[in-house]
Specification:
By secondary structure, this protein is mainly β. It has a domain of 100 residues. The protein has two helices and 32 strands. The N terminus is likely disordered.
């Protein structure tokens, strides 16, 4: 009886291993001038999943499953099915689950040998996901843990992630729906669109940056695009080589600097969170909306003012204008609002400055 039980247990273990490590299946067909081999397989799921391809795109989706399943397509161009089979044979996929790590990667790709694309499904509770491609797009969604995604030049699109997000691309756009942790995103020149996250560090060589919600601090930098930040719970730093900056509802301190665009800042009235701040542009206008209850000390200057130079809704601000006889002149504003507090420095060389009461 004991021997039969052991045999039954061995059969069950073997069956389970077959489920999570079965041999991949494949088929070859022709599509849009290419020969395509479709390969599908199943792997045991580790706490970490890594997918790497040398040229093609990667799609990865979390779901209610206990294994890692994948479908990949090998793409080659050839004159005949026999020639195609030889080229497809050079494209290889290597898979393994060792310890807590599941790996899927391609080999043999190059300019003459075609490329592979990956569609991978994993358990949504996976702790860490790492995706890398040397040129393709990346799409990822419904992951409970943290992720790292890198492309040499493609776009990166992220849906919902429960942990930290770290993404980088050599030139494509980056879009992130929401992250439960911090967000680090970098592009050589594409736009960055971030739905939500905690602390953020965002950088692009020339694209625009747009953030819908940040519960912590945000640091955003672009070589020339515009920056728009909404609902920032901590401090905000925004720097552009020449684009406009618009910050809506920032609770912490704000440092905004652009090489030539306008700056619009709407401050929040949260007590005890606002810190010394600075807004600066050499040529653009600056408009600041200040709510009732936010105590600040204003120090503002326009170096070469045309017209009024500085306009304010607050009688507490003292405005000093230079001699108008010889054309443009320096204009200053100084004063304490709502009892005073952290210092807000506002400076433009040739634009004008407005201090407006924020509507409740």
């Amino acid at each position: 009886m004991r021997k039969k039980r052991l045999q039954l247990a061995a059969l069950l273990i073997a069956a389970n291993l077959w489920v999570v490590a079965q041999e991949p299946s494949s088929r070859i067909y022709r599509s849009k001038g290419e020969w395509v081999e479709e390969v599908s397989g199943t792997l045991a799921a580790g706490k970490t999943v890594k997918v790497k391809t040398q040229a093609g795109p990667i799609i990865l989706q979390g779901g209610q499953q206990n294994t890692v399943t994948y479908t990949l397509h090998k793409h080659v161009r050839a004159q005949s099915i026999d020639a195609a089979r030889r080229e497809l044979g050079r494209l290889r996929v290597v898979t393994s689950t060792t310890g807590d790590t599941t790996i899927i990667r391609s080999e043999g790709e190059g300019s003459s040998h075609g490329f592979m694309d990956f569609d991978v499904r994993i358990p949504s509770q996976t702790s860490f996901v790492k995706l890398e491609t040397n040129g393709g797009n990346i799409h990822l969604d419904q992951i409970g843990g943290s992720i790292f995604a890198s492309s040499a030049g493609g776009n990166i699109s992220i849906g919902k992630v429960g942990g930290d997000v770290h993404v980088e691309t050599g030139g494509g756009a980056i879009e992130i729906g929401s992250a439960g942790g911090q967000v680090v995103a970098s592009s050589g020149g594409g736009d960055l669109v971030i739905g939500g996250g905690s602390n953020m560090k965002l950088d692009t060589g020339g694209g625009s940056i747009n953030v819908s919600k940040c519960t912590g601090a945000v640091k955003a930098s672009t070589g020339g695009g515009s920056i728009e930040l909404h609902d920032v719970g901590g401090t905000a730093q925004a720097q552009s080589g020449g684009g406009s900056i618009h910050v809506i509802s920032v609770r912490g301190g704000l440092r905004a600097e652009t090489g030539g665009g306008a700056i619009v800042a709407e401050l929040s009235a949260d007590h005890g969170t606002f810190t010394d701040s600075r807004l600066e542009t050499p040529a653009g206008d600056i408009v600041v909306y200040i709510p009732n209850g936010l105590g600040v000390n204003i120090q503002a200057a326009v170096e070469t003012a045309q017209g009024a130079g500085i306009i304010t809704d607050f009688s507490e601000l003292k405005i000093t204008r230079g001699n108008e006889k010889w054309g443009p002149r320096e204009t200053y504003a100084e004063g304490s609002l709502n009892g005073g507090g952290p210092v807000l420095h506002v400076h433009t060389t040739a634009g004008h400055i407005e201090f407006r009461k924020k509507k409740q």
